[in-house]
């Protein structure tokens, strides 16, 4: 329904209808505000036609006023339109505010219908209610359907985020679940163990057969995060990974952990120290950290953290350490 501002001549009667789902209440008043008819009617075509006929018997010059322009009022509005009856519309909020200025504290359908009719009688700023064209009706149906689909999709994405947060927080932060590819990935692999067992190559093939775009990049991201999550926990247990100190909206604060295995930290520290003599890659990494401004102890701890990643990769792949990565011929 659309509301247009048009000049409406002053009628003889005003019929206010308090719209309900099953029943309406109609009150008809004259120019002096006297009630000429007050009736509670069923929301049924036969009953509504009888009400309209009875009101028109009193006078043919009637202005109908309703507090709802859709839903339960649709049948009444359609019947009034078919009989070329003028209508106006007051919002429920306007009726609620106006009812406080009338005598009595009680609230009934009859009182609300009288308030609607009386407000239509006194106010001249109300627009005339007219039916919308078929295109507007179709557009409203389509937009409502689209809003429902968007709400359903948002709920599904939120549930996936909540579930994945309990299983694999690192992957939850990395995946954009509004895209199809990450959702397809989760249908087959949800845990770090499952991703590590499959491997990046197998996941890439699995995604490619399902026609997922950028399958190689997505598979590599999942594999890297699975390895990183486990190596990060090992480093945290050894005291080589910073612990977050966040609260409320404050995030990103990292502090040295207070609870960790000091024996494991010592083992990694001594391992990093010993590697400076016999491992050129470790020595190069150590001096790179020194050139960045770190002192000897800080550079050794950075090297120990790096060796945690290497150690975890060796455990994960069941391979021995090789200073030069092995390349396979194409």
Mean pLDDT: 80
User: How many individual helices?
Assistant: 12
The CATH class assignment of the largest domain is: Alpha Beta
The CATH architecture of the largest domain: 2-Layer Sandwich
SS-based structural class? alpha/beta
- Which shape, going by the Cα principal axes? elongated
Strand residues, percent: 5-15%
Low-confidence stretches: none
The overall strand count is 9
Q: Order of strands across the widest beta sheet? A: 4-3-2-5-6
- Residues in helices, as a percent range: 55-70%
> How many separate structural domains?
3
Give the N-to-C terminal Cα separation: 68 Å
Classify the fold: give the CATH topology of the largest domain. Nucleotidyltransferase, domain 5
- What letter string, H or E per element, gives the SSE order? EEEEHEHEHHEHHHHHEEHHH
**Alpha-carbon Rg, integer:** 37 Å
Report the major sheet: 5 strands, mixed
CATH superfamily of the largest domain: Ribonuclease H-like superfamily/Ribonuclease H
Organism: Amycolatopsis pithecellobii
GO molecular function: DNA binding; transposase activity
Domain Transposase IS110-like N-terminal: 15-169
Domain Transposase IS116/IS110/IS902 C-terminal: 214-286
